[in-house]
Design goal:
With 214 residues, the chain is α/β, with parallel strands linked by helices. Helix 1 links the parallel strand 1 and strand 2.
């Protein structure tokens, strides 16, 4: 049986993410086992990895670093072995080179770029960017294959992943200018929106992630 681990490093939303993955696995009939863990050995043996995240970049980064052996296990599984990886919200942002939320903090540097404050071109737009917004797909990806034109997803964020290489931006969302909504390369995928809160669209995306064989 294939196993997906949801990384527990003290950030929020991991239980709701895990429940959404369990439901997507059940509805799709994949038989996927889903485990929430902070155990490095389980991460090394997992077939696919999900890194959720809610909160400040620096806090999440320090939380990840504080779990013994976790970063090394992530690098081994995701970078060395090429296991499918999904980062959600701050979990996506942690893939950046660095975050600039109140202070400059190094990220995992898996996808080059910086996490910077959202500065909408329209001063009437409030921060955080919160609610349902339309995704604009820029490049095909197996996990986004069933995201139809005009599809909306649920966002809650005050910072944007400014990606260095545009080819790694898979989708954007408009909020006083384009913001990064999804990034990816090789076996790495990150979404700024919350699939676990995006109803049918989010469950389908998760099911496609569980079926993804990069």
């Amino acid at each position: 049986m294939s196993r997906t681990v949801v990384i527990d490093y003290g950030s929020g939303n991991l239980r709701s993410a895990a429940k959404a993955i369990e439901r997507a696995a059940r509805d799709s009939g994949s038989g996927e086992e889903v485990r929430v863990t902070r155990d490095a050995a389980e991460v090394r043996s997992a077939d696919r990895i999900v890194l959720p995240g809610v909160g400040a970049f620096a806090d999440c980064r320090r939380g990840l670093a504080a779990v013994p052996g976790l970063e090394a296990a992530l690098r081994e599984s995701v970078i060395a072995k090429g296991r499918p990886f999904l980062g959600i919200c701050v979990g996506m942002q942690l893939m950046a080179t660095e975050g600039r939320e109140f202070e400059t903090v190094p990220g995992l540097d898996w996808i080059a770029g910086e996490v910077v404050p959202i500065r909408p071109g329209d001063p009437a737009l409030k921060i955080p960017h919160m609610g349902w917004n339309e995704l604009r797909l820029l490049a095909p990806h197996p996990v986004l294959a069933h995201v139809a034109p005009g599809t909306h997803a649920y966002f809650v964020h005050s910072y944007n992943f400014a990606v260095a290489d545009p080819k790694h931006v898979l989708a954007t969302v408009e909020y006083g200018g384009p913001l990064t909504a999804a990034v990816g390369r090789d076996n790495l995928l990150g979404v700024q929106f919350h699939p676990e809160k995006s109803q049918a669209m989010g469950l389908r995306l998760i099911a496609d992630f569980l079926a993804w064989r990069p």
